[in-house]
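Bug report (template v2)

What were you trying to do?
Predict the complex of my protein with magnesium ion.

What happened?
Run completed; filing so the output is reviewed.

Input:
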Amino acid sequence: MELLVDNLTVTRGGLPVLEGVTFDMRPGQVVMLRGPNGSGKTTLLRTLAGLQPPMEGSVSVEPEAIAYGAHADGLKSTLSVAENLQFWASVYGTHDIAPALAAFNLNGLTTRAAGNLSAGQKRRLGLARLLVTGREIWLLDEPTVSLDVASVGLFADAVRAHVGQGGSALIATHIDMGLEAREVDVTPFRADPNGSPRVATAFDEAFT
Amino acid sequence: MELLVDNLTVTRGGLPVLEGVTFDMRPGQVVMLRGPNGSGKTTLLRTLAGLQPPMEGSVSVEPEAIAYGAHADGLKSTLSVAENLQFWASVYGTHDIAPALAAFNLNGLTTRAAGNLSAGQKRRLGLARLLVTGREIWLLDEPTVSLDVASVGLFADAVRAHVGQGGSALIATHIDMGLEAREVDVTPFRADPNGSPRVATAFDEAFT
Amino acid sequence: MIALLLRDMRLGVRSGGGFGLGLAFFLIVIVLVPFGVGPDSEILARIAPGILWVGALLACLLSLDRIFQLDYEDGTLDLLATAPIPMEGAVAVKALAHWLVTGLPLTLSAPIFATLLNLESPGHIWVFLSLLIGTPALSMIGAFGAALTVGLKRGGLLLSLLVLPLYIPTLIFGAEAATRGAAGLENATPLALMAGITAGSIALLPFAASAAIRVNLR
Amino acid sequence: MIALLLRDMRLGVRSGGGFGLGLAFFLIVIVLVPFGVGPDSEILARIAPGILWVGALLACLLSLDRIFQLDYEDGTLDLLATAPIPMEGAVAVKALAHWLVTGLPLTLSAPIFATLLNLESPGHIWVFLSLLIGTPALSMIGAFGAALTVGLKRGGLLLSLLVLPLYIPTLIFGAEAATRGAAGLENATPLALMAGITAGSIALLPFAASAAIRVNLR
Amino acid sequence: MSETHRTKQARDRWNWFWEWANPVKFMSLSGKALPWVAAICALTLIPGLVWGFFFTPAAENFGSSVKIIYVHVPTAMMAINIWVMMLVASLIWIVRRHHVSALAAKAAALIGVTMTLAALITGAVWGEPMWGTYWAWDPRLTSFLILFLFYLGYMALWGAIDNPDTAADLTAVLCIVGSAFALLSRYAVNFWNQGLHQGASLSMDQQENVSDVYWQPLVLTLVGTSALFVLLLLIRTRTEVRKRRTHALETRERMADV
Ligand code: HEM
Ligand SMILES: Nc1ncnc2c1ncn2[C@@H]1O[C@H](COP(=O)(O)OP(=O)(O)OP(=O)(O)O)[C@@H](O)[C@H]1O
Ligand SMILES: Nc1ncnc2c1ncn2[C@@H]1O[C@H](COP(=O)(O)OP(=O)(O)OP(=O)(O)O)[C@@H](O)[C@H]1O
Ligand SMILES: [Mg+2]
Ligand SMILES: [Mg+2]
């Protein structure tokens, strides 16, 4: 499935952060989203995932095709690794968690409570969730935070396997994780805070 | 003031994490604390700051000489930048916050509520707190997280100025921030989880 | 959906929270009232159904912020919103889990606590019955309030403030049904009205609550 | 120390919390009770001092977890523990700030709310006086309970469970003083005993609470 | 910096005394003591109860319900004594950092809450024929209810904390502060209401005492219940020590494969 982003304006706290964002991502591609801190990468990803409405523009894909990996992992510290992953597998209707556990080297930890994992192990569990969603387009917000070099390698392998099967991944990150990927820099799309507001009608002019 | 750490054993969850840690830091020095994720850097810094008792060994400096910079910044999102900093200045009995604001380029933000700052600005405010403590020894836990290159430069300048006045700084970090510094790697001190517990008496043998 | 229900109940029971503590709080409110009001057993028996209802309501109230807050803080709610289950269903299931972990134990224990307030025998059954019909509404209305305040730091008291007025009709009919029942009077009308509130809340509030959550996630 | 007091009060008033909401909760409990108990003004007047005390206590209780929890979560407590003010002083100051933001407004408004419960004129003053003497103890005991539970996720209900039994003596003497005062009886003894509890708590509990906080920070 | 508690212990000249209760020695000693305590318990409690239930006359104004006394009074007295024992154990933990005493306090709480509940229930069952009500806000009963709440809070705090040393510290502080307030509550409750309940009938004052027929088996059951408490306490503390050991092993294993 192709992700076409056309002339998108995304907002934070009611103000446009990025304007006129236009790019596309085809199946089998990995796209790295680049930009300095505070430039609006997180805001863009949340808009694409359908968590907040865009101010302008369009996205070709329904949120139903997208798996979103946020900065927080959504783990429950009193549940075990297997219970956490099994929950998401049931929600997405895919019931086999074994491949996901294996891909992120979590087999030795299945009965451990998530709260007793190290930060890197937590993150690995969070990423394993992507594999049980069974969705085509991954939107990932700084997925390699707190991972060591070996685990970054595991993650890169998982992404390669995913795009090899016709999936695609849009990854916001500051580091180089050794994937052959196209880069999209959000800096040129940054909204000019002093410029005239780009609203379609004059209706809400006074407010933006 | 010299920081002498002698044969220190630090614990987490009742179990030793690092054993026999021994190093020293003289005034005017910067020491970088290195080690992979989960090796015990945070635990060591918290012990040195007096937040948790060591299991064995000694530290030459009372916690009263130490300024501790934790991962969390302790900012109140409803208070302004100046109010946040002024609070810490009053607590430490130093009342001029202007130099600290200037050193971290926060002058334009003084009336902004801390909750509306970007991650990097929050971190800068957290680091500015160090300057109003007026203490000699800084213990910093990953101080440059979420800072961009320019802000890392500001931080390095602040550290240089601090050690230039006879202070010292022990910094746990994974990156290279361009300071001339000695390195202490905690890896050799990692406690062997399968080794025999190093307790002085057999008293609590059954529990550690 | 069933996975969500099981997970929420497991969390409620495991996290040293929900279950036992809701009951304990109920017990404590029931114990405090005589200390405030005095030990006169006749007065106590007279106000007992009302106090039991107010106590159950407060115990319910205090555990409301768990419904969504923890899931919001650790990012689960974002992930649930993008998952293939409708948000309305998720809200209803979470309210049901809250009831099973809080409202149901309160209801089951109310007859015992009624003894502490010197309530005589027929009153027990009516307190029990009215709570059984009424507490699902408390959970559902509470879930709606929790959805409204989910993004706010320490929304606890604000949540109470929003939810308590919404609880008043349920409380009035519930306490009335129990009091009349205890006095041997006819109480079908308040029971029916309360059942109506419960049915209406369960049918409609999931939509309002899920809308509120979507707004809060933005 | 004064900086800490000012900061805590500013936070209490600013963060859409403490101040107004404590009062609002108090009001709502006072409003709920007649709905639960029925509108009979004679019974209401009789139970009014007790209900006012129980209501104030619950309103106080609900805002307790703010005393340390937020500071714990954002790391301020770590930094305070390494700052040059004694932890005992910090605890006492924080309890004082809690009282100024919660207990004092409750006390000041209690005479007004007493009217809602048909309490006659001399009763007002005694409710006011007894709350004035008793609420500082509630804040201080509450700060101790908050210190015990500061490290725990959603310690709210656990906190209630720990603190409520500790509140019982204060409640008994306070409500007794108010009730006797309202009935025109001698009430110097309960007032004095309550003042003793307040003084004792303020003198001793900061030490216990700061020990608990240090343990929790480990 | 300050010396650790372990070095302090090593220098203490009473150390040999405390050494006897280090976990390992405690386990072996208590293992040996268990059968003896069990025997004492069986030899006092069973005859006491049988004597009390079947070989005492039914009192003319009490009926046979008076026999509840052989469960009610021992459990009620133990419920109070156990809290006192927990207080002592908590103090030992705070001063000596003695793991077994913290675990003993934890173990005692479970028994104490059971005893409290048993006293409350037998009291309530007895109250029905005696006072015509299961429950009255009598000071004795009320302060017992408060004691029950203290037990509940204490156990809830143990349950809510993962780290065993932290839990031991915090529950010990709670137990100490709680004891002061429990005592205060006792007086407050007395002040608040004058009650229906029996005074202290085992007092030396012969005037107040129940007649000898009831008294002798009662003493036997009192001794028996105390022995039962010691027995249960030993068993439970041994379990807690083992659980603590398992916890330590698990944590260590967890650290091994980070
Ligand atoms: C839920 C109800 C009750 C509770 C919680 C309760 C509690 C207690 C307590 C705490 C003791 C004191 C043990 C001691 O300190 O020596 C006690 C003793 C006693 N109770 Fe009760 N009681 C209850 C109901 C009753 C009833 C209904 C009766 C019957 C009239 C009764 C008769 C006695 C007697 C005769 C003693 C022995 C007096 C003594 O040794 O001090 N109790 N009970
Ligand atoms: N509540 C808010 N009100 C107004 N502006 C906000 C608010 N929250 C964030 N912002 C601003 O929105 C901008 C975009 O933030 P966003 O989180 O999308 O950046 P980002 O590119 O993800 O940064 P990072 O690399 O740090 O993750 C930032 O400049 C930030 O200051
Ligand atoms: N509650 C706990 N119980 C047992 N072990 C724990 C607990 N919390 C953390 N640990 C373990 O203690 C070790 C030391 O953690 P610490 O935070 O000191 O590491 P660190 O060097 O600061 O790592 P990082 O580089 O990720 O910050 C880790 O292996 C971690 O898994
Ligand atoms: Mg971001
Ligand atoms: Mg660390």
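What did the reviewer find?
The pocket of protoporphyrin IX containing FE (ligand 1) is lined by residues E 69, 72-73, 76-77, 119-120, 123-124, 126-127, 130-131, 140-141, 144, 197-198, 200-202 (CB under 6 Å). Helices of chain E lie at 5-11, 15-19, 23-54, 69-96, 99-131, 139-160, 164-192, 212-256.
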